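Q: What changes when zinc ion is included in the input?
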Amino acid sequence: MKLPSRIMEDAVTEFSRLPGIGKKTALRLVLHLMQEDASRVGQMAESLQRLKTELRYCKRCFNIAEDDLCSICMGRNRQHQMICVVESLRDLLAIENTQQYQGVYHILGGVISPVEGVGPEQLHITELIDRLPGLESPELILALNPDIEGDTTAFYIHAQIKKAGLDVRITSIARGISFGGELEYTDEITLARSLAARMPYQRNSDS
Amino acid sequence: MLTRLQLLHYRNHQSAGYSFDNQTVLINGPNGSGKTNLLDAIYFCCMCRSYFLRQDQLLVQHGHDFFRLDASFDNQGQTDEVSVKVVSGRKKEVLLNGVAYEKLADHIGQFPVIMITPDDTRLIQQYADERRRFLDLTISQVDREYLFDLQQYQKVLAQRNALLKQAWQRGADKEVLDSLDKQLWPAAGRIWQARRNFTERIVPGIQAIYARLSGNREVPGIDYQSDLNHADAAELHARTRQEDLAAGRTQAGVHRDDLLFTLDGEPLKQVASQGQIKSLLIALKLAAFHGDPDGRKPLLLLDDIFEKLDRKRMEALFSVISEGSWGGMFLTDADSSRSQDILRNQQVLFDRVVTNNPD
Ligand SMILES: [Zn+2]
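A: The predicted holo structure follows.
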């Protein structure tokens, strides 16, 4: 696309690098911003920049945080002995949106998948195990996608807890979610029900 | 039964529509005019894939970028519409009564089908994966859990092999291997059980049909060969773990299963004539739903089965086939007069389709 200005071209290129944004949409957004007040655009640019400069990962649960700990880990009304283990921030947001869950979280940052070259050492599993001894009768809710990678990760966490000799109640969210279905796409009602009806984590894992 | 079939840009069918009034349909036309492709289109509507080609894109008529199939199945007054859409660069879609399947596996077995082609000799002459493919395609039509277990097994196996391969460089994490094995064992055990049950279930059918086809006294059999015949899955994979680590892949398991066809207990390959092999293959295919607890009636697709037979054998073959319980029958034959004669002799009502597409 030939544009009258190099600056405009750069802006269009930047927008079109975003997921789901094509060149046409990018141009529309840029044209729109050019009509806006300078102060509005300045605010937008600043808020974008702060995403990178002022945000960090929570030292405890790896949620997005503005301080060492995230707002959930610092929450007074949260049940801190109940930890919901999720793959990613998006899964955390999906569960938070149900407004039904009163515990805290632990974001693994992925799931075990040798095919993708992801082993347990790339995930925050050690950090999860380290959280447990400090808690009174801790409970882990494994809210991982019900697929092979999710199950492998669940089995692995279970084995690590056993190995550490910790007494932890482990449950897994009820499989209202179809096998192979993504947690993130599950609607809020189903997800809230799954959380309520979580199952003791056992299955054929205790051999 | 199949009452309607429409094809758009499917192989050498530019655009064609057929409707059928009878259970039996004879497809005539010169070689290369699209007879087999018509059978394959029906097969695709039942199995979400071609019988002959693994890549859907290769089925699209030259010069186009999609194909579409529409089929109507009539079952005791209820009509089901199946549509298949394959567009280049997009995921293939199969629709039942206008609703696209989320998982194509859910369609398998809804419209059971058996294809018999001259190509089937591959089952005996070629590698074990052909025989496993036969098992998988047949069992998944009668056992919904089977396809699920098979997909699970293949995915876990891929993860396990990736892990074993990495073990070369950095040592495998024993606990990750444990976690994968806990998912591998149950799936492997169920696949083994299903394959063993299936082979045992169809053997009486094969023997009865073979005896009628060949008129001979020798008795055919199938020997299901599996690493799991002598050890359960957990035991087997625990025992071979060290070797797997050394080799960098999973060396034993149901992915190595095979079928050995026999005649009077001797391996078929060594003792059988071409005629005996052909009879056994037809018997094997026709018996595939033998003893099916749900009594499914598969649609029978017969490609060129009269080829190289004398008239007497053709009649005999057709009368044996007709004794089965089918949800319809489609036959191709380049020679239109002989096949029409045989059907009329046996007092079968049939529709006739003549293909004349350019090759
Ligand atoms: Zn936190």
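Observations recorded in class: Chain B has two domains: 1-112+297-359, 124-294.
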